[in-house]
């Protein structure tokens, strides 16, 4: 049987071990949060690049009828919708990106369209979205 002093020592050692485990768990959580934060910043940066490249496109490539946008919105899967919403990307804006990609495929490529297509593809990858085709 343990004496009172030995019981206190064992109890104290248990608390120290418990605190060490908590500290280790907190460090792991902190590291995980940093990774998530970096990923979120990367996604946001890719989205901003895509928006900027989209703005540089010829206006005719950015003109879409409301019916076209609505049709494209209806075609988005629930998974894609959720990923866009989670990353604060407007569904209508993404639909416009997709419609512009379709127009570019029909009219041919230029340096501006190449930049847009590349940034859109990178953004979709960063969000875990498979390329949306016609």
Describe this structure in words.
The chain is mostly helical and 134 residues long. The chain is 81% helix and 0% strand. The protein is built from six helices and no strands. The protein has helices at residues 4-55, 59-62, 66-75, 78-86, 91-107, 111-127. α1 packs antiparallel against α6 (111-127) and α3 (66-75) packs across α5 (91-107). It is rod-shaped and about 85 Å long.
How many alpha or pi helices?
6
Order of helices and strands: HHHHHH
Average pLDDT over all residues = 83
- Sheet/helix structural class: mainly alpha
Classify the beta-strand content into a percent band: under 5%
List low-confidence stretches. none
- Count of DSSP strands: 0
N- and C-termini, Cα separation: 77 Å
How is the quaternary structure best described?
A: single chain
For the largest beta-sheet, the strand count, sense and barrel status come to:
none
Query: What is the overall silhouette?
Result: rod-shaped
- The amount of helix comes to over 70%
Radius of gyration: 25 Å
Give me a quick take on this structure.
The chain is an all-alpha fold. It has helices spanning 4-55, 59-62, 66-75, 78-86, 91-107, 111-127. The model has no long low-confidence stretch (mean pLDDT 83).
């Amino acid at each position: 049987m343990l004496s009172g002093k030995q019981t206190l020592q064992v109890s104290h050692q248990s608390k120290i071990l418990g605190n060490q485990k908590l500290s280790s768990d907190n460090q792991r959580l902190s590291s995980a949060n940093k990774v998530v934060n970096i990923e979120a910043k990367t996604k946001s940066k890719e989205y901003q690049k895509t928006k900027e490249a989209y703005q540089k496109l010829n206006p005719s490539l950015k003109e879409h009828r409301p019916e076209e946008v609505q049709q494209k919105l209806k075609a988005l899967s629930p998974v894609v919708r959720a990923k866009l919403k989670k990353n604060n990307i407007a569904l209508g804006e993404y639909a416009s990106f997709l419609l512009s990609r379709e127009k570019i495929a029909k009219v041919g490529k230029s340096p501006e369209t190449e930049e847009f297509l590349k940034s859109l593809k990178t953004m979709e990858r960063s969000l875990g979205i498979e390329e949306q085709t016609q």
